[in-house]
Write a structure and sequence with these properties.
The chain is mainly alpha-helical. It has two domains: 142 residues, Winged helix-like DNA-binding domain superfamily/Winged helix DNA-binding domain (Arc Repressor Mutant, subunit A, Orthogonal Bundle), CATH 1.10.10.10; 48 residues, no CATH class. The chain has a two-stranded antiparallel sheet.
């Protein structure tokens, strides 16, 4: 098995969407992804068209549009994405589970090469069919924290002040809907949005 550039970029783009989602940005523009991965936008658009048709991503038009994940990250497995882009994981077709084709060997049952390639196929598929996007995103963010590196997409063009004002509006609306007595005690403490919570929601704690 050899991963094509198309499959490699597809997986990297999905990881980027997952990281951005975990940091509070569920939707990214194609230009942001292309800039981060240093890829031609046209090529990335072709990849996303294929991912969208398979139900891995969805898009929204408009000024604030872009691409986002179309299913939970724990339901996106790398083996399935690679098969979508590149085809079978097996190094030779006669050991493929999804695209079996008989080879030129006259005695397939007793072919030593086929027995070896079965082991290779099983080792590859065991890892890729088990590994989910959620796991890789978690590992990546953990390494960012360990190395004290700011994750991508954390500081985007939308000003922090505007985000904070939106949170304040949400808090004021919540307070109007309940009495002051309901905001006191444990329930009231849960309703408060502290600066620490705001930064956590923005993903800033991921770099501490």
């Amino acid at each position: 098995m050899k991963l094509s550039k198309r499959a490699e970029y597809a997986l990297r783009a999905l990881i980027d969407l997952g990281i951005a989602s975990e940091l509070g940005w569920p939707m990214l523009q194609i230009s942001e992804l292309a800039s981060k991965e240093k890829l031609p936008i046209k090529f990335l658009e072709q990849i996303f068209t294929q991912l969208k048709a398979a139900g891995y991503v969805k898009s929204r038009r408009g000024k604030f549009g872009g691409y986002s994940l179309a299913r939970p990250m724990n339901r996106i497995k790398f083996g399935a994405v690679i098969r979508l882009i590149d085809g079978p994981l097996a190094p030779i077709r006669c050991v493929s589970q999804t695209s079996y084709a008989r080879c030129s060997c006259p005695d397939e049952i007793h072919c030593g090469l086929r027995m070896l390639m079965f082991d290779v196929r099983n080792a590859i598929s065991t890892i890729l069919d088990r590994c989910t996007l959620a796991e890789i995103v978690e590992i990546t963010l953990r390494k960012y924290r360990r190395d004290k590196v700011t994750p991508p997409f954390l500081h985007r063009s939308i000003a922090l002040s505007s985000m904070l004002s939106e949170k304040q509006k949400t808090l004021r609306s919540a307070r109007k809907g309940v009495g002051l007595s309901q905001l006191s005690g444990p329930r009231g403490s849960q309703a408060k949005i502290t600066s620490q919570n705001v930064w956590r929601e923005l993903g800033e704690d991921n770099v501490n």
